[in-house]
């Protein structure tokens, strides 16, 4: 299954709008394991929608091959993945039933590749929308985007990725020689089961076009010679350039130093983050990035304390500009696990009620009698540890780096390295 994207594809639109310079500096050649798993989940999502006659449980254990620029990746479909996908499928059924209640069977579009070039600065730009429903009688289009991840909650309102899917789908249905239907209203929906998030943005066709014009204007900035940097949590989170980005380094340094009122620093608001050309920007050197690495434990400690202090001040009635308290995610547990299990096995197969898995070799080793340890070791496969950065004073032997291993680096986060 292909996981390749356009350079101005919907999934990168928000990052480029927030930080136009990232279009030039971000490297699209790699991807994270989370993104690869999400692509595999989308494949399962698509197959279940296209083949409702097939039992979803048959997908468990199947291997999905995800094609990325850095090669092919194999992902096994797990029960947890299928549960999240099926929650999305059930939501789609509910929305379909709502439309059918008006006496109409909606037209469904599954994983449709749409042309979004009109809204981007360069031609031949495409995106693939997960699922769309068209109500011809109500002149209403529903665009549904499935998100498999849980780490970052995504919302629908003013979401450029979702809006571009809608705009591309409308172009296929309404514009020019494609004018087969009339659409007056649109619903843009994000469904993120693993984050317990279902969010919806309802707007008119005219409002969507207006937002599309805003997207188009913002994306054009990326092609300017002096395209601005816009470091922020949202812009930098998935940008590959962040460890080398001078604008981000300057903003973090100024924010960190500016916390202390007696230091003579330039406020973040006065830092010129618009410089982009290498000869205009101070380089992030090996020495400076090394110092930042050594300070990361202290910086994290400070950031955690800032979060705690902000929560405490707001709880005390302070108005902290730009911040507010909200109720966190709900958690769920059984009132009585034994009673719940007894009732659940009456209505579900046992393998869907109980999840039994073998303990890791590290746990098993601690429980084994000495007499059988040697024979059990034959059952254990050793996986080589990944290269990891640490202090020169570490007693472990230095790893010899080869060019083909550059992508294998990891970073330890143990604050004990710094005496914290």
Give your account of this protein's structure.
- By secondary structure, this protein is of the alpha/beta class.
- The protein is 37% helix and 14% strand.
- It contains 14 helices and nine strands.
- Strands 3-4-5-6-7 form a five-stranded mixed sheet. Strands 1-2 form a two-stranded antiparallel ribbon.
- A hairpin with a 4-residue loop joins strand 4 and strand 5.
- The C terminus is likely disordered.
Write the layout of secondary structure elements.
Elements: H1 10-18, H2 22-25, H3 33-50, E1 63-68, E2 71-76, H4 79-100, E3 107-115, E4 126-135, E5 140-146, H5 160-174, E6 185-192, E7 197-204, H6 205-220, H7 233-236, H8 246-258, H9 286-294, H10 296-315, H11 337-344, H12 350-353, H13 361-367, H14 370-377, E8 388-389, E9 410-411
Parallel strand pairs: 5-6, 8-9
Antiparallel strand pairs: 1-2, 3-4, 4-5, 6-7
